[in-house]
Design brief:
The complex is a heterodimer of chains A (about 240) and B (about 180). Chain A has about 240 residues and is of the alpha+beta class. In chain A, about 50% of the residues lie in helices and about 15% in strands. Chain A has helices at about 1-15, 20-30, 35-45, 50-105, 140-150, 185-195, 220, and strands at about 125, 135, 160-165, 170-175, 200, 205-210. The chains are: A alpha+beta (about 240), B mainly alpha (about 180). Chain B: This is RNA polymerase sigma factor.
Chain lengths: ~240, ~180
């Protein structure tokens, strides 16, 4: 580039690396070109050309130019975003309006929307460590999963505390409920334990929480089971 | 694109990369100019960038014919303004500035010299003071560089430079006066 050529000439001129003819030539050019003369004066004051400074300057210029281009792109995208945002805003308003009308029309049925939240719908177990050391062979998680898959009829739901021993075959025996819970709960808990996984340890003590059901279903759950299915031995602990 | 096209392109589109291309070749010269006035490396670098920032606005509105000399005058003024803001005393040689403003006049007259012009020139040479006469003669006729002239005459290098610049200007004035007088 012409510019770099001039720069190296200035450099050579200041450091006395030029022949006399070259010096004369540059001086003559500078007489016709005050820009060049000023630059030579400046570099002479600085005692030379610092190429590093100039490449830093070049980098600054490049960055400046690129930044603006990047900013322009950013603004461009911002307009796109704004358009999308506006469209989303319109949709949102429309949706709100629809919901509003629906809300008015469906007000009478609204009571049916009451739902049971997920966790209450599940059977939960909680090992009580003060009364046992039993753990399911397949782990608590698997056992809980099994309970949730197999639970059929747990009356009105609720909590029940179950004590049992673990036989030599790893199956629970002497299953009994604590306190005086709903018989349907006891039945279901015993059924589930009997048909369930094997256990480790000697005695078990669990709190099982069955999901609560609405009262109107309760009549269905009070099916009387044959006594042999109860299998609960009342024992004093 | 050449310089003129770049200028026009920038003026119409505001495309900063065009301005960058236009500006970049002059940066090292500009740095030298800024250093001459500001005499500080960091300030000079900042000035070069700041001048670019100002060009972003100015070149969209101003009609610039000769970018190089316009840029030179613009940056020189910028630096002088900086110094004025500092309220620092500045030593700017008025001769340099005179020399500057005549610049445009003497571009196209190199070729059309005739015999009587040289006679006129000889006459005008006699009107110069000793220093100028000596230095101009050594420089233009014997094509010696400033350093040699300084060595030969015993003048300081800067004195040689300004003697040549001033001698050249005085010669021009003299020649023009004779031309008009005839």
């Amino acid at each position: 580039m012409e510019n770099n050529y001039q720069l190296s000439r200035i450099h050579n001129y200041i450091h006395g690396l030029m022949s006399k003819e070259e010096m004369f030539q540059l001086e003559k050019e500078a007489l016709e070109d005050p820009f060049l003369q000023d630059a030579i004066d400046g570099y002479r004051l600085q005692n030379g050309v610092d190429a590093r400074q100039l490449s830093l300057l070049q980098q600054r210029l490049n960055r400046r130019v690129e930044n603006t281009i990047a900013t322009r792109h950013a603004q461009y995208y911002t307009w796109q975003r704004l358009a999308i945002g506006a469209a989303a805003g319109v949709l949102f308003v429309v949706l709100l309006a629809l919901l509003y009308f629906k809300h008015f029309n469906g007000k009478a049925e609204r009571t049916t929307d009451v739902t049971l939240s997920e966790p209450e719908n599940l059977v939960a177990i909680e090992p009580l460590l003060d009364g046992g050391d039993a753990t399911p062979v397949d782990g608590w998680k698997a056992f809980e999963q099994y309970l949730n898959n197999q639970v059929k009829d747990a009356g009105n739901g609720g909590e029940i505390i179950i004590n049992f021993r673990i036989g030599k075959d790893g199956l629970p025996e002497q299953i009994r409920a604590e306190g005086a819970p709903d018989q349907a709960l006891v039945n279901e808990a015993v059924r589930l334990l009997r048909s369930g996984a094997k256990w480790q340890g000697t005695t078990g003590r669990l709190k099982i929480t069955f999901p609560l059901k609405e009262m109107k279903n309760s009549t269905q759950s009070n099916i009387i089971k044959p006594p042999h299915c109860f299998g609960v031995e009342k024992q004093g602990s | 694109m050449n310089e003129k096209e770049l200028l026009q392109h920038y003026k119409t589109t505001g495309d900063l990369s065009a301005l960058g291309k236009l500006y970049s070749p002059y940066m090292s010269l500009l740095y030298g100019v800024c250093f001459k006035y500001l005499q500080d490396p960091d300030r000079s670098q900042d000035a070069v960038m700041q001048i670019f920032e100002e060009l972003i606005q100015k070149l969209r509105h101003y009609e610039v014919d000769n970018f190089k000399s316009w840029l030179h005058v613009y940056s020189k003024n910028y630096c002088l303004m900086q110094l004025r803001k500092d309220k620092r005393t500045t030593q700017v040689d008025i001769e340099d500035n005179l020399f500057e403003s005549e610049q445009k006049l003497n571009i196209d007259d190199e070729s059309k010299w005739e015999e009587r012009d040289f006679e006129k020139l000889e006459g005008c040479m006699e009107t110069l003071n000793e220093e100028q006469k000596e230095c101009v003669r050594l420089f233009y006729l014997e094509q010696k560089c400033y350093k040699d002239i300084a060595d030969l005459t015993g003048y300081d290098l800067n004195k040689v430079k300004s003697a040549i610049q001033n001698g050249k200007r005085n010669l021009r004035i003299c020649m023009e006066r004779k031309e008009n007088g005839k």
